[in-house]
Amino acid sequence: MIIVLKPNATKKQIDHLIERIKALGLKPMVSKGTERTIIGVIGSEDVLRVQPLEVIPGVEKVMPVLKPYKLVSREFKPEPSVVSAGGVKIGTKEIVIMAGPCSVENRQMLHDTAKAVKQAGARILRGGAFKPRTSPYSFQGLGEEGLKFLREVGKQIGMPVVTELMDARDIPLLEQYADIMQIGARNMQNFDLLKEVGQSRKPVLLKRGLSATITEFLLAAEYILSQGNFNVILCERGIRTFEDQTRFTLDLNAVPVIKKLSHLPVIVDPSHGTGSWDFVGPMAKAAVAAGADGLMIEVHPNPEVALSDGPQSLLPKTFTELVKELRKVAVAVGRTI
Amino acid sequence: MIIVLKPNATKKQIDHLIERIKALGLKPMVSKGTERTIIGVIGSEDVLRVQPLEVIPGVEKVMPVLKPYKLVSREFKPEPSVVSAGGVKIGTKEIVIMAGPCSVENRQMLHDTAKAVKQAGARILRGGAFKPRTSPYSFQGLGEEGLKFLREVGKQIGMPVVTELMDARDIPLLEQYADIMQIGARNMQNFDLLKEVGQSRKPVLLKRGLSATITEFLLAAEYILSQGNFNVILCERGIRTFEDQTRFTLDLNAVPVIKKLSHLPVIVDPSHGTGSWDFVGPMAKAAVAAGADGLMIEVHPNPEVALSDGPQSLLPKTFTELVKELRKVAVAVGRTI
Amino acid sequence: MIIVLKPNATKKQIDHLIERIKALGLKPMVSKGTERTIIGVIGSEDVLRVQPLEVIPGVEKVMPVLKPYKLVSREFKPEPSVVSAGGVKIGTKEIVIMAGPCSVENRQMLHDTAKAVKQAGARILRGGAFKPRTSPYSFQGLGEEGLKFLREVGKQIGMPVVTELMDARDIPLLEQYADIMQIGARNMQNFDLLKEVGQSRKPVLLKRGLSATITEFLLAAEYILSQGNFNVILCERGIRTFEDQTRFTLDLNAVPVIKKLSHLPVIVDPSHGTGSWDFVGPMAKAAVAAGADGLMIEVHPNPEVALSDGPQSLLPKTFTELVKELRKVAVAVGRTI
Amino acid sequence: MIIVLKPNATKKQIDHLIERIKALGLKPMVSKGTERTIIGVIGSEDVLRVQPLEVIPGVEKVMPVLKPYKLVSREFKPEPSVVSAGGVKIGTKEIVIMAGPCSVENRQMLHDTAKAVKQAGARILRGGAFKPRTSPYSFQGLGEEGLKFLREVGKQIGMPVVTELMDARDIPLLEQYADIMQIGARNMQNFDLLKEVGQSRKPVLLKRGLSATITEFLLAAEYILSQGNFNVILCERGIRTFEDQTRFTLDLNAVPVIKKLSHLPVIVDPSHGTGSWDFVGPMAKAAVAAGADGLMIEVHPNPEVALSDGPQSLLPKTFTELVKELRKVAVAVGRTI
Questions:
Q1: More exposed terminus of chain D, fewer Cβ within 10 Å: N or C?
Q2: ipTM (interface pTM)
Q3: Would the pTM count as exceeding 0.80?
Q4: Is C317 on the interface with D (CB under 8 A)?
Q5: Is residue B75 included in any domain, yes or no?
Q6: Is residue B58 domain-shared with residue B160, that is, in the same domain?
Q7: The dihedral of CA A45, D7, D22, C317: what is its sign?
Q8: Which residue of A has its CA nearest to B241?
Q9: Which residues of A, range 204-233, sit inside 8 Å of C by Cβ?
Q10: Is residue B122 located within the same domain as residue B241?
Q11: Do residue C134 and residue D189 have CB atoms under 8 angstroms apart?
């Protein structure tokens, strides 16, 4: 940690600061520059994290040197992690497609969609039973009944299933019915929820918050790993910006940035990220080219009557065509689907 | 709701669309313009909200006419709401100051701070027992012990208390120990939590999410009101933008905007909004001038050793001076503190 | 244009509004809904654009139906435009790579870079002679001398050249020395400059402003086309968001969005967009997969000593490897490089 | 400047780096920490600014210690600057109101507005002759004729005038007709324009760019001061964020932040900042309370027929009422209007 002093910091202030640093068991190294005095602090920055040194008189700013996360970092674990869910591995050379309807609406529709996406090449079935909806008047999901449909259809068709967890009290249900527990963007900093899925060993798909920096995203994952659950898959799904032609701004830059900083697998959700079915194809291809380990895509047999997110869902036929094109891009970057 | 058709929409597509609108029990009114056909839809837009008409072939865009919230709106209730918490009224001519430490650290420190802020003019005591922290390695709060200290000190000093709720399972605890349950920015769209505090009758202080539009903020409040709890206080606490000289961008525009759209009281938190104690004073004054019904300000007797958010806390002495200045601004805009 | 009235609009207000609409030579169509009165206005919206109907008493909001641009739109010209610059066509099946140093620093360095990027597969040489720098103390470019070097080297190596125009008074110089005049992100809404390049017939590469919506970006291009210059190439180069791991947030969503709305060719600049050489490769591949018509990439033989933007420049060797990989992705999406 | 090395930096890399630092005439100070080696660099950071040390192998990041601007900083000049324009001083205890129509539309309207705003308490007359408009089809201003009207009316009523400069070629015109040259938000980084107004001695009102950080805003002012013109007034006018209930997000935090960092006077434009007349009053009061040295407010005798920005203009009567209320707030914070 580097502490930059104000140009007019007094000797008394500097001495007080040095004393406090030593009191924390750390070693200060003072450099007097032409315009500023700077103090480098040797020792574990963890100790410093809880100490707001910025407020000590004479201090202009404190610049941390180390990253605030550990277990999720490449430095902690240089080789990429592979997460295994219901027999499907995420984080290998093979790009894994998760597809299905936004919400589980009924058994038949789920079955038909699952059959179609599996045939097209998807490996994991997605479908929401608990739905986080901006308006209290929107469809809120089928709840446990939806989970049951999901498990049944997954078994029948032979696909592991991923579904959203909104409340820690539902973890036992999810552990029973799902192969991957999804934490949605709006719960990315629901820290109690993060800690509790951290105590499970079930794989967790963690979506990036709408206004989360990549550092905060990795810190949210760190919450889960710090409880012992290393089976975390990160998912970029769009951030909030001023642009309004897309529902969110899908930030594909996050893919190479996270790959550099962390060993965890990263997938991309172009359906929520763009909010519009006609942008899903180009952005899915771009995600694969950027190095994503997987994709999450909404497919609905009849978007006109979908109970949620119809405008961003692909028809099974369009999805099938897309997977064919994605395969070519995957091969071009040395991977498979 | 207005439906704008694509310039090349076919008669067949238009007929299909009209049919669907009628099937929903609504009345379409078709206007053929020089460049576009437009369909106005008469009837309750609630029905339309669940129907993604955008996906029907030939439709270019769907423009809702009505606001998506009801119970929180000025149209539903034109006169301003007053929320009463432990005998203090929020939403009247009197501007209510809530002050105290970021976290409850121990009994003594809380007591000293409470005494000082009460004497300065604060009416409600704040203090966190459950702390939402970006890093899993930061101080996470004292939990129930903190709640007990808060209740005891509040009683002793004679101040109602507000504290953050992070998990729905803690509602019984909060109902017992607190006068106002705070929902933090990171939980603003934790919809399960919103629904459950909606079933309580305890006042709720709802903080705006970091990336929440004002419409989404009002919809989050609507979740609470829709469950029957009308005792909601809204709190602007800064949004995420590109600017990095302040921790967040405190959006004071939200005050007059919400006052126009909603009957709910609005307060402002300049401590979290700016993240820096030396900006708290100017922004607190600005908030009062902009029409806020209250302020939430962090005060700590010794920010150097605070376990959280030291850099944004005021010393009791500075706080006392600030309240004096705030009183003058309040009077200038026809209010009191 | 649709005008939504306030719920309590009086008959007198409505009559006044209708009168004003008729005075503009337009035809109002009034629909009385269950909760609101709505007036659709038939006729050219151009007339309406200058009339702030929002301020007329009783009006709640005015919703334009048509897009605010014309000449740049797909509706005006459904087939994609091809811009020809010094014999190279942009907007065809072939993806065009523009490469070179950020700034022209001297003749030799430019020549070596040009030779290397041409051999690797770049078709157009980039290099700045006038540099828009955030700080007045940074290197400001060689000016006309730089333009001369650029033209000489371009001729020698056989590559058309693109360089930035910052001041309308330099248009004659650029017309003499360059094949494409670039308008930088910070000048995207320098409307006088846009109008004057609109009067030239030289191709213009228009970069998206840091905070420009896609609509504003297209309106900036409309300024150029409206003066008669249809040779416009659009360039996505990153927008400003809260994320700080990348210098800007390269918004690849803009590629399919613009392709849908406009006939103009779109290229992507991953060097400025990410600000970091190690993210240039993945984002360049993603841009090609998303449907970009070209790329602009910074290459410098010795980034350590570059006078500007060293951290985001590729070494010639790395660039050569990248083009090989880009070719594979191009083929995967049915194109060539 | 602090250079943080990668955890695995080799001795050879460190030696190379130290050599380069010495070659720049600077003194490296190496600290080997438990997890990282850090090099502090003593000497003028100006030299370092042009050297992209980030690209040298083994370097993880470079953290500047000093601010990138000088002449505009409080450190360079601790006491606040006062700018004098046509006899009116900006930056004193008196808060200066600049008011008038968005565009100069004709002589009569300008005269009536000027008379009204002067009587209400405005000290400086604003009015645009050259208009930066997002759409090429919007009213572009009266040009020189508008400037003449402005000068005539200003003289007649006895008010200095401020008007926008869009093109460096118009500086002689502005020097003749105006008392303050305004540089609009969209030209804040039009560096050639900044340099040329820097060579004038006429006061410059510099508006913050829509996506400019405060650091970039101060660097833009530094361009002007570095050419010798110290008569610069800064103007906060709203930044671009995701919020859409206001046209921009007026960032009042910028007022105390700039006051801390710079000696230049700061004013606020709530009309453009909010885009809606009914938010102008609350935000103007908030700006005064936050410490602004002045306000810029749009007033139009008949917003219904305004050729630009009607929705955000106040009627003269409303403006007169507002100034009365602003006076009370000014007094409350120890100032006058």
A1: C
A2: 0.92
A3: yes
A4: no
A5: no
A6: no
A7: negative
A8: A241
A9: 211, 213-215
A10: yes
A11: yes
